[in-house]
Amino acid sequence: xxxxxxxxxxxxxxxxxxxxxxxxxxxxxxxxxxxxxxxxxxxxxxxxxxxxxxxxxxxxxxxxxxxxxxxxxxxxxxxxxxxxxxxxxxxxxxxxxxxxxxxxxxxxxxxxxxxxxxxxxxxxxxxxxxxxxxxxxxxxxxxxxxxxxxxxxxxxxxxxxxxxxxxxxxxxxxxxxxxxxxxxxxxxxxxxxxxxxxxxxxxxxxx
Amino acid sequence: xxxxxxxxxxxxxxxxxxxxxxxxxxxxxxxxxxxxxxxxxxxxxxxxxxxxxxxxxxxxxxxxxxxxxxxxxxxxxxxxxxxxxxxxxxxxxxxxxxxxxxxxxxxxxxxxxxxxxxxxxxxxxxxxxxxxxxxxxxxxxxxxxxxxxxxxxxxxxxxxxxxxxxxxxxxxxxxxxxxxxxxxxxxxxxxxxxxxxxxxxxxxx
Lengths: 207, 205
Hints:
heterodimer; A: alpha+beta; Rossmann fold; 4-stranded antiparallel sheet; 7 helices; 8 strands; B: mainly alpha; 3-stranded parallel sheet; 9% strand; globular
């Protein structure tokens, strides 16, 4: 991960660029939010207890995570992809002015399956801010996944799940709640298991 | 004591267990978790073996949501392999089968177990004493029994939203669990095959 220039107008880029600068701004401008994010980060990633910053060269910022034990400072460039994705998702969820639409490709990537409920809740923090004590407009979150575990977490909200049916070069989309038979099909079955089995479609085919 | 359930409600489960036992238990708290019923059922044998061979836990307490599955009946006999639609019977059957196959460990008493089935979900229990409709028999007779609509409605009533934040989920469920242990008699009468059965298991320890 590269360092971020110090710029008051920085925003988080689609490839995660500027993460250090956006977090640095949050710490300076919204310290309470930053502390909440820090605490949440410590819960998601219990091996770490603090987001820190460094100034490698004049006018540049990098971020580091401090280990809970030993207080070792780990440069962002040394962190795993899942850790960085977690941090980016948390940052989006806690900044006061997230973009109106957020698209997340495989937000479960590199993330421990047991953290996926927290990932879902971070997405809900964006989409249903009033449920989390936020006073801002809801964000439209569009996420793709191939994780049955993440899908399981949406069983009570089939209106939030769209299955992509790929046939050769074509693709059609079907909202789960539009299927009249969804309750009948699912019964006791986990949503992720049902999708994996193919009974809900969403299995690429060339015929 | 070791507790596990399908949601992150361990503190609430512990409050219920301690309230029923009338004493404070030491919580072993192995970080077991399962993603849904079918996964929980498949990992239960491993959890039981782990607890038996590698911990000094005295007991395992489990509460699962019934969702759309069949209700438990006192007349059910888990060991006969019937009532496969009843989650409580299936849990007990699996636990019996696994525990019967365990090798005795010196100085270790058999692990005690308690299983509870919340109809249709834990949130219904959390409404007991507040909503006169929060009664097992009433919930089972509703036209929307077993549907996602009812589960969502219960969440709405307990948390004020059907997509509660983790903090709200934890705080509300803890608060209601503390209230329920003050009205255990009513709680067990309202959910005789759920919390009643769970409490009987625990009192048999």
